[in-house]
Design a protein that fits this description.
314 residues, 7-stranded parallel beta sheet, globular, 5-stranded parallel beta sheet, 15% strand, single chain, alpha/beta
């Protein structure tokens, strides 16, 4: 079986060796002719740089498995994949394993502190030769009211970090989730915004879902801090950008934008960030050497188990 690594940069050598040990031919895409690369591939490993839509998948007639070491699937057209009988192997639902991966919670918490202390502006100020600390007086996390949207794996960990710094934690979640004593569960997003100064989006997103922060919720964010390391599609991006442009929010940090691999609003994001407390990172929440190596190896083992199960039933 031919395995293709669509984004092979620093793909873990142990994971490649394991694939080869299973008897698979492993081919890495060199940035050349994509159609020629995809044509013989039966198993495709992807990250987040490509949108696997109908046009993309038409170039891969033999494809049977898509392996993505991610929990979100916004880069995958799940309807087309299902109609083609292509199985997606990802990290979605792998809670026990994911509890040991802390990259995204740590990045999220880092963005919270960076917003409160105006790090981006301070870094740029010093780089330009300035040394005026009074321009960048910030706020402490201690005593702040933090609202977590989605108390899953990432949300729970971020809430724990905030609590350790002396913040008061509230949350909303549609599921029955565990929470520490003292964390307040609220009935909905509106109540969360009204009672919290810092809003952190940690909830999951399924293609086609409505944003959890629509126009009406965005209108309530005046004077608030917003952090999003989940998915750009969780917010009404146009409404949010308009609110930022109007100077309504105290600060915004996002590791994600809508339609990251297609036509998107990145240019507008960069424009609004010039003179405001806005931080944009390129979806690096899970991008640490440790996390990526471990997740790649986990997905390889999950592929091995899947293929073994398939072979036993055929």
């Amino acid at each position: 079986m031919q395995v293709g690594l669509l984004e092979p940069d620093r793909f873990d050598p142990a994971a490649i060796a394991r694939l080869q040990g299973m008897g698979h031919a492993v081919v890495a895409f060199d940035g050349g002719n994509l159609q020629e690369f995809l044509k013989p591939v039966q198993v495709l490993f992807v990250r987040l740089a490509y949108q696997l839509d109908a046009d993309f998948l038409a170039q891969a007639p033999l494809l049977r498995y898509v392996c993505s070491p991610t929990t979100g699937h916004t880069h995958l057209d799940e309807g087309i994949l299902a109609s083609r009988g292509i199985k997606v192997i990802s990290l979605r639902g792998e809670q026990a394993f994911l509890e040991t991966i802390r990259a995204t919670p740590e990045h999220t918490f880092g963005l919270v502190l960076a917003l409160l202390r105006n790090y981006r502006g301070a870094f740029s100020h010093v780089a330009a030769g300035g040394w005026n600390r009074d321009l960048f007086r910030g706020e402490e996390l201690y005593g702040q009211r933090v609202g977590i949207v989605g108390l899953g794996r990432v949300g729970f960990r971020v809430a724990s970090y905030c609590e350790a710094f002396g913040a008061h934690v509230s949350y909303v979640d549609t599921r029955d989730v565990k929470a520490n004593d003292g964390w307040q569960r609220l009935s909905g997003i509106q109540q969360l915004i009204e009672t919290s100064r810092i809003i952190i989006l940690c909830t999951s997103y399924v293609n086609g879902d409505a944003p959890v922060l629509g126009q009406s919720e965005t209108a309530l964010l005046s004077g608030h801090y917003l952090v999003n390391t989940a998915r750009g599609e969780l917010v009404d991006e146009i409404a949010l950008l308009a609110a930022i442009e109007a100077g309504q929010l105290a600060g915004v940090a996002t590791d994600v934008i809508s339609h990251e691999t297609g036509a998107n609003q990145l240019e507008r994001w960069n424009a609004v960030a010039i003179k405001r407390n806005v931080i944009i990172t390129p979806h690096i929440g899970g991008a640490t050497f440790t996390a990526m190596a471990r997740t790649e190896n986990f997905i390889v083992e999950k592929l091995a188990a899947t293929l073994q199960g398939t072979e036993k039933t055929t």
